[in-house]
Design a protein that fits this description.
The structure is a homodimer.
Chain A: H1 7-23, H2 28-35, H3 39-51, E1 55-56, E2 64-65, H4 67-90, H5 95-105, H6 111-126
Helix pairs in contact in A: 1-2, 1-3, 1-4, 2-3, 4-5, 4-6
Chain A binds a DNA duplex through α2 and α3.
DNA sequence: AACATATGTTAGACATGCCTAACAATAAAA
DNA sequence: TTTTATTGTTAGGCATGTCTAACATATGTT
């Protein structure tokens, strides 16, 4: 049941969550544009996310996020944010580099190492 | 021509390089065991690496690495080592966690951010 | 050398994830 | 409201990467 999401599906879920937060509404095409994929690809991803109970969605239907989906999305967004801040403010990388690497690494880093990075960043800011 | 390797092919090349360094010889089955994949999968990967001139290899033939392949492998190994050291000695993660995360992140981190991590680790050791 | 075991290869299958092109439905404009 | 444009869906294709099972070759043992 509770299988781990693929990087790709995490990206779709994250996009839906972020768009919803800005617009209070999401359309498939917004997701397509945000991720730079075709509408066809988005349709397929939406089906899979709905099957996993992370979003509510039916044919030609509005998209909404479930509580489970929202929790999952928030986790990904937090990972992204934590990594971004580490790259940007601790390592001094550019905004673009920090974003790019956070986007890739957020899907594969372990909780243990991420937590250490978060702690490290906090201590770094204190000193 | 000089297309970037996939994460998977980088793993195979890295394994070949490391086994060669220990044994002075590699067999496909060694690679299979090291990566936890079937012999069939390794055969296919070897074909692709040979096509890209990273290894010398023909049907039922011994495997050797080309200068280009060796250079490429060394880069990956260095990325791995740098990440491992950062996780292990700067963040204080366990050996296993450090290995696991290095294995995954080595394929996707950018040169810019990696270089910053290397510098950071060096400075950390000085203080 | 003959047989047995280990290793390598191939074919065919499956899963993921992307695409294009054609079609369907909805929304906007006339 | 009828037409047009936008958005969503489906079907079919392609690439990657894995697997199993059957077969081929090589290696080791007797």
């Amino acid at each position: 049941m509770n299988e781990k999401l693929t990087s790709s599906l995490e990206d779709y879920l994250e996009a839906i969550y972020l768009i919803l937060k800005e617009n209070n509404t999401v359309k498939a095409i917004d997701v397509s544009r945000k991720l730079g994929v075709t509408r066809a690809s988005t349709t397929e991803a939406l089906k899979k996310l709905a099957q996993k109970k992370l979003i509510n969605y039916g044919r030609y239907d509005a998209i909404s996020i479930t509580p489970l989906g929202e929790a999952t999305a928030k986790e990904v967004v937090n990972k992204h944010k934590s990594l971004y801040e580490f790259f940007r403010y601790v390592l001094g990388a550019s905004d673009e580099e920090s974003q790019k690497n956070a986007c890739a690494i957020e899907h594969i880093i372990s909780k243990d190492v991420l937590d250490r990075i978060i702690t490290f960043t906090q201590n770094f800011h204190k000193n």
